[in-house]
Write a structure and sequence with these properties.
six-stranded mixed beta sheet
Length: 445
């Protein structure tokens, strides 16, 4: 049985505002008669023994229309006999939406569950019934292959073409995402476009649209349960895989989106906390008994450390007016020594809108071997191809020395774990859903 997990190594949202406007959503000044709405933007995220079910409601005149959010669930869609009300609700905008989160814990592993969001008074109807598979038990499993899918910069093309107000862009993205996110755990990490309502500066953005506020409210990762920080950095086990989500934007030395940059974000817990957490997390994951149990370690983050670079999209007489999306030297200095020291298998990035695979690398970014079956070393994969249709980026410097493969098409990666030392990395063309490149990977254990 193939286990499925969608992992988004984003920037989830790109917003290009030519003028700033405040958009009033779902409110008629002529009528205050409540009408029933449906829960929207339904999304799942993993917890150690279950999932968080999250959804959005419109509220009524700034009043929470679901003061007691409730999920009914079970393994039989005709008998949803269990109930959970444990969780929390947040909001952040002027004309408020409400973001509800309910925990379903102590579920059986590798089991299909069905769930429904219960109706709320006279304001919100109950949802349809959705279903999901719980994660395999952490450890080597008999249920191979285990499948993780990775995609970066997923909604960039949508935002360029529609040029919507910031909140509309989020709503459109999460509307489009729901057929997946309501039925498959969808793990996210921060990118530069989540930082604030305008990608080049926070100066025109009100305080409630700065510093990852929308991103922090619209998703609910279990960062605190892994010793991390909310949706910003965290880790989890998924069968034989330990997954680490890094925040390449803020909270480390010279972070590209941190305080005193144009986006002026971060400083959630200081410059050293994330790196300190990463080292502690890797020490635990690479304890000999734990590594034997969960042999694969996959790190992800928005910005790549190495690879080909891009021609700036906007130039005057050869000088960049809008900085290009290039490799992140400060990210490399902060994270690569630890990823190499603890023999992490993969680093998946986004940010550059193509797919690029590099040969295994050492701590200094040098090639360990020019194949994927005879040695160790970090396998660095860039996948910002969720935004490839924009066709705005052209290669400036092609990293032919380290590059095993590159494609400027529209797609995503699928990592199939076959056993404790063998994996297959597929590059999939989204327009045809066909595998356009497949690489066998064998690790020394």
């Amino acid at each position: 049985m193939v286990k499925h997990l969608v992992y988004n190594i984003v920037s989830i949202t790109f917003v290009l505002l030519t003028t700033f406007s405040i958009y009033v959503e779902g409110l008629s000044l002529c009528s205050f008669i409540p009408k029933k709405n449906r829960s929207t933007h339904i999304r799942l995220a993993l917890r150690p023994t279950g999932v968080t079910v999250s959804w959005t409601t419109d509220g009524f005149a700034d009043i929470d229309d679901t003061p007691s959010p409730q999920i009914v669930y079970g393994t039989d869609q005709n008998a949803l006999t269990m109930t959970s009300t444990t969780g929390f609700t947040t909001s952040y905008y002027i004309i408020k939406k409400f973001f509800h989160n309910v925990y379903l814990d102590n579920l059986q592993p590798s089991t299909k569950y069905y769930y429904r969001i219960k109706a709320s008074s006279n304001f919100v109807d109950e949802s349809n019934i959705y279903s999901f598979m719980t994660a395999p038990t952490p450890g080597i499993t008999t249920e191979y292959p285990v499948n993780l899918s990775f995609v970066g910069d997923l909604s960039l093309d949508n935002d360029f073409n529609q040029n919507q107000p910031y909140e509309d862009t989020w709503n459109t993205f999460q509307d489009n995402l729901q057929p997946i996110s309501a039925n498959v755990p969808y793990q996210v990490g921060p990118g530069n476009h989540e930082a604030t309502c305008f990608q080049y500066s926070d100066a025109i953005c009100p305080s409630f649209l700065r510093n990852f506020t929308a991103y922090q409210n619209r998703f609910c990762m279990s960062g605190d349960l892994s010793g991390g920080y909310k949706n910003m950095w965290y880790s989890f086990d998924y069968g034989p895989i330990h997954v680490i989500m890094l925040n390449t934007e803020t909270d480390f030395v010279d972070a590209p989106t941190g305080p005193d940059t144009t986006l002026n974000a971060g400083h959630f817990v200081g410059k050293s906390a994330q790196v300190t957490w990463l080292q502690a997390d890797l020490q635990k994951a690479t304890d000999p008994a734990q590594r034997a149990k969960v042999p694969w370690i996959v790190a992800t983050g928005h910005r790549p450390f190495y690879g080909s670079t891009v021609v700036p999209a906007v130039q005057i007489v050869g000088h960049a007016i809008i900085p290009p999306s290039d490799n992140c030297r400060s990210c490399e200095l902060a994270f690569m020594p630890l990823l190499s020291q603890y023999k992490v298998d993969f680093y998946f990035a986004g940010h550059l809108h193509w797919m690029e695979l590099l040969y295994p690398l050492d701590a200094s970014g040098n090639i360990v071997t020019r194949n994927f079956t005879s040695g160790d070393g970090l396998i660095h994969v860039t996948d910002g191809a969720g935004a490839a249709p924009t066709s705005t980026e052209k290669i400036k410097t092609n990293d032919t020395e380290r590059q095993a493969w590159i494609c400027n098409g529209y797609g995503f990666h699928q990592l199939l774990i076959q056993d404790s030392s063998h994996a297959i990395l597929n590059f999939i063309d989204s327009s045809t859903t066909t595998v356009i490149k497949s690489v066998d990977i064998v690790r020394k254990r």
